[in-house]
Amino acid sequence: GESVGLHLPTLSVQEGDNSIINCAYSNSASDYFIWYKQESGKGPQFIIDIRSNMDKRQGQRVTVLLNKTVKHLSLQIAATQPGDSAVYFCAGRFMNNNAGNMLTFGGGTRLMVKP
Amino acid sequence: GAGVSQSPSNKVTEKGKDVELRCDPISGHTALYWYRQSLGQGLEFLIYFQGNSAPDKSGLPSDRFSAERTGGSVSTLTIQRTQQEDSAVYLCASSLPRGEQYFGPGTRLTVT
């Protein structure tokens, strides 16, 4: 079925270290994936996306890797900062002509940055 | 407006009462989405609007849930005869057709 899930519910890292948040999906009928950051009391905020015809995309301090063979997605945050502490969600857009840009979200990983 | 806004930010209601949640999308965004987020969980898709029509209502959990959108802008999500399991944060997002979704801050609903 259509599902997007995460390996770890909580990730604790030291400030300055790199963070890697993982996500697995089961439905290969997706044209793109997105990572969102959600801080307490706020809605999800777009971080970076990647189309299914790519395997890597880089942004500012963030890199998303897509491995379609094993249906795995990861978000790498370089030099993690206290402001990166939040819950991170991966989401996939699955082909559904009736639901436009409807996204299926994973359960989220809470990133905690230790000073 | 500058972003997606939702009201109220918090709503506490008694079991059995009806509630209305409002979403003001970004001006010019034709697509509007409602999601539900239970405590510590991911986002669950509820309904999608393209303009004023809702091609996909399959995510609505029961017939107590309904939504409408008028003038291609504001949308309201109505929950009738609320139950405790309806307690969650209800998030609205808007986008250009097949564009990036921008989320509002959500409405936290607590049913006592």
Would you write up a description of this structure?
The complex is a heterodimer of chains A (115) and B (112). By secondary structure, chain A is mainly β. Chain A has one domain (4-114): Sandwich (Immunoglobulin-like). Chain A is built from no helices and 11 strands. Chain A has strands at residues 4-6, 10-14, 19-25, 30-38, 45-51, 56-58, 62-67, 72-77, 86-94, 103-105, 109-114. In chain A, the strands form 2 sheets. In chain A, strands 2, 4, 5, 9, 10 and 11 form a 6-stranded mixed β-sheet that branches. A 5-stranded antiparallel β-sheet of chain A has the order 1-3-8-7-6, with no helix packed on it. Chain B is mostly beta strands and 112 residues long. Chain B has a single domain (1-8, 25-97), classed as Immunoglobulins (Immunoglobulin-like, Sandwich), CATH 2.60.40. Helices cover 0% and strands 51% of the residues of chain B. Chain B has no helices and 11 strands. Chain B has strands spanning 5-7, 10-13, 19-24, 31-37, 43-50, 53-56, 65-69, 75-79, 88-95, 102-103, 107-111. In chain B, strand 9 (88-95) and strand 10 (102-103) form a beta hairpin. Chain B is globular and about 35 Å long. The chains are: A mainly beta (115), B mainly beta (112).
Give a nutshell description of this structure:
The complex is a heterodimer of chains A (115) and B (112). Chain A is 0% helix and 56% strand. Chain A has 115 residues and is mainly β.
* Low-confidence region ranges of chain A: none
Second rung of CATH, namely the architecture of chain B: Sandwich
- Name the quaternary structure: heterodimer
Number of strands of chain B: 11
Our estimate of the beta-strand percent of chain A is over 45%
H/E series of chain A: EEEEEEEEEEE
Question: Pairing-aware structural class of the strands and helices of chain B?
Answer: mainly beta
What is the CATH C-level name of chain A?
A: Mainly Beta
